[in-house]
Amino acid sequence: MKKIRITLVGGGTGLSVLARGLRKYPVDISAIVSVADDGGSTGIIRDQIDMPAPGDIRNVMTALSDVETKLENLFAYRFKKEALGGHALGNLMLAAMYDMTGDFAVAVKELSKILNVKGTVIPSTNISPKLAARMEDNSIIVGESYIPEVKQKIEEVYLIPNDTVATPEAIEAIEKSDVIVFGPGSLYTSIIPNLIPEGMKEAIGKAPGIKVYVSNIMTQIGETVGYSAADHLDAINTHMGQNVIDFIILNEEDIKGRISDYYNRNDMTAVESDRDRLGEMGATVITDHRLVEIDGEGAVRHDNKVLAEIIYDIALKEISTLQYKK
Amino acid sequence: MKKIRITLVGGGTGLSVLARGLRKYPVDISAIVSVADDGGSTGIIRDQIDMPAPGDIRNVMTALSDVETKLENLFAYRFKKEALGGHALGNLMLAAMYDMTGDFAVAVKELSKILNVKGTVIPSTNISPKLAARMEDNSIIVGESYIPEVKQKIEEVYLIPNDTVATPEAIEAIEKSDVIVFGPGSLYTSIIPNLIPEGMKEAIGKAPGIKVYVSNIMTQIGETVGYSAADHLDAINTHMGQNVIDFIILNEEDIKGRISDYYNRNDMTAVESDRDRLGEMGATVITDHRLVEIDGEGAVRHDNKVLAEIIYDIALKEISTLQYKK
User: Fold this and answer.
1) CB-based contact B89 A92, cutoff 8 Å
2) Helix, strand, coil percentages, rounded to 5, for chain A
3) Would B214 disulfide with which of A255, A280, B183, B265, CB 3.0-4.6 Å?
4) In B, which residues are within 8 Å of A99 by CB distance?
5) B85–A84: do the CB atoms touch at under 8 Å?
6) CA distance B165 to A306
7) What is this protein's function (chains A, B) (predicted)?
8) Using CA atoms, how far apart are residues A171 and B73, in angstroms rounded to an integer?
9) 8 Å CB contact of B84 and A48
10) Does the distance separating the beta carbons of A97 and B74 come in below 8 Å?
11) Residue A90: closest CA among chain B residues belongs to which residue?
């Protein structure tokens, strides 16, 4: 039997968490990952080697590995000795493969084979782009890590150089998927950066698979403060030039009383479900009372098992409907 | 059915070549590898990080991998940029694991899991020893790579520090093996260094498995010039303090006319089969007219397929004899 093909689109930790949950199901997972990150150690290595950002790629490879903890430790290891640099070993491994193959997507594929990574990890673009944002006041901020820092309303994000092209591997994954999942993750700095390389918008627009957006549970400082679920979806559709999302997975439980003060102090609130506007955009709402996991300290996140279960159910239903239609 | 357990003992390229040949058979392979090498890039990294020699370990891991060429390229990769050092990436990976685990044998085991290496690669000792040789004139040469350079007759080799202990993993492999294969490889700098860490001699002496020595085809400059097959075996037995080898695999074809001038110029001749003396030492001779591979330029080596086939046959026969005895 042909396995269901699921493509995840995102970056940051959100994508890794979902990949880890889905790994347990009999599905073919591809993950299209943003490579515009310029913060932390990824920023440091990009200063020395002009390459797409390795950090999120590493995290997803780790999440799809059978020896997850071991690989995570190896990837994260930094030599103390000055002579060997302060680089994370995983970044060096990706840099080495990139230098040998001259193609970042091929480098990720080859390293994935060596490390016996299940699924396919695909950088959204093969060059080393910068993410830029135009704010409501028309000011331009360049650099993924700087965008949330100005704490202004974002109108649009784009890549520099302007003609950054999507990897053929990413386009192919989109074309062949039964289900395409956007998120969870930072809206403007993890998800949308994958949609804007040339060729991607058209591929997603034409793709036969069903498109699912996983809304964040909390709004995010410097990116989505005050945003409802429909505002999130609207940002995606605006960058896509059309309504593309078939299903939106969101939380409708009242969690106000259980979240930590950290959120209140930073104007971060639960993302509100505005079903009417979502319906107007053509997105069917899917929710589950077990979707949110709140730990003892009031930190909020998706329950990755529940999220994976929901996505697998959507995929199964859709596949059987399609077979029935034939 | 329990798989036949074969342990290879050696170093250098000989061990890798045999491992590659045996990988195709349904056997459990362990490889005990000498870590006293101090030449080339291995020497350079040992100058900066006090660790057992990673080079031969890497080669055997590669030979036991399903993605051999890819892993070989990644391991061998060196960054051109000064800031990232001139180190082979594989040495850095082993150094990182060694630093994280504090135990070289565990480091090799963990990295093998991450890289999905079949079989078990075991350093013969966990510390960073130097190999020393006492020559016929009682002079002492320290450093594996220097020993062959003096081109004198070697009386004995030993490790510094003197109390270097064998890894428990190596002892266990010896105890549990159905077949233990010594060589092919440099007699004094690849094979014997594995026999001298404390605990090894006793383990091999008591081991129930059959012991096979694969004789080199050509004598080796600075190590075994003028040696017959029995002289090779005698060197092993002398270091072991007893006769331990049950079978010796050697070449008896006349290859004189087919070898390159390089050998003649360096006093390297075909190793002579002196069956009477071998018999006195308790070793049964096994030979095959296809054992030697000579390329168009007259370079001589073992045919790794034939060698693996011979060893697998010995193992099968021995196992069935043992079952019959029970």
Assistant:
1) yes
2) 45, 20, 35
3) B183
4) 77, 79-80
5) yes
6) 51
7) Required for morphogenesis under gluconeogenic growth conditions.
8) 28
9) yes
10) yes
11) B93
- A60 versus B82: the higher-pLDDT residue is A60
Torsion of CA A172, A177, A181, A182, to 10 degrees: 20
Which of B163, B183, B147 is closest to B38 using CA atoms? Answer: B147
SS3 of residue A157 by DSSP: strand
A67 close to B (CB below 8 A): yes
pLDDT of A19 reads: 95
CA distance A195 to A7: 13
What is the DSSP secondary-structure string of A184-202? SS-IIIIIGGGT-SBTHHH
List all residues of chain A from 99 to 138 with a beta carbon under 8 Å from chain B.
99-100, 110-111, 113-116
Assign 3-class secondary structure to B18-49: HHHHHCCCCEEEEEEECCCCCCHHHHHHHHHC
Q: Taking CB atoms and an 8 Å limit, are A116 and B111 in contact across chains?
A: no
Q: How far apart are CA A31 and CA A94, in angstroms?
A: 17
Q: Is the peptide bond before B193 cis (omega within 30 degrees of 0)?
A: no
Strand A210-214 and strand B4-10: pairing? Answer: unpaired
When comparing pLDDT for A325 and A283, which is higher?
A283
- A85·B85 Cβ contact <8 A: yes
Structure token pair of residue B3: 């798989």
DSSP A283: P
Q: Is the peptide bond before A161 cis (omega within 30 degrees of 0)?
A: yes
CA distance readout (Å), B123 to A115, B88, B109, B133: 22, 19, 10, 21
Chain A hits for B107, CB-CB cut-off 8 Å, are none
The model carries a pTM of 0.89
Q: Which of B44, B92, B97 to mutate to test the interface with A (most CBs of A within 10 A)?
A: B92
Place of tokens 């009417």: A276
Q: Sign of torsion, CA A193 A194 A198 A203?
A: negative
Determine the average pLDDT of the residues in A54-69: 94
User: How does residue B326 score in pLDDT terms, banded at 50, 70 and 90?
Assistant: very low
Q: Find out whether B23 and B184 touch, Cβ atoms under 8 Å.
A: no
- Give the per-residue pLDDT at A279: 96
Chain B residue numbers with beta carbons less than 8 Å from the beta carbon of A48 are: 81, 83-84
Domain ranges of chain A: 4-318
Please give, rounded to a whole number of angstroms, the shortest distance from the CA of A128 to a CA of chain B.
18
Query: Binning pLDDT at 50, 70 and 90, where does residue B81 land?
Result: low
Which residues in chain A have their CB less than 8 angstroms from residue B65's CB? 114
| Residues B278/B236, Cβ–Cβ less than 8 Å | no
**Torsion angle in degrees (nearest 10) through CA of A223, A229, A234, A240:** 80
Q: How close, in Å, is residue A203 to chain B by CA atoms?
A: 32
Are A243 and A277 within 8 A, CB to CB? no
Write the CATH number of the domain with boundaries A4-318. Answer: 3.40.50.10680
**Tens-digit pLDDT profile for residues A254-276:** 999 999 999 999 999 999 999 99
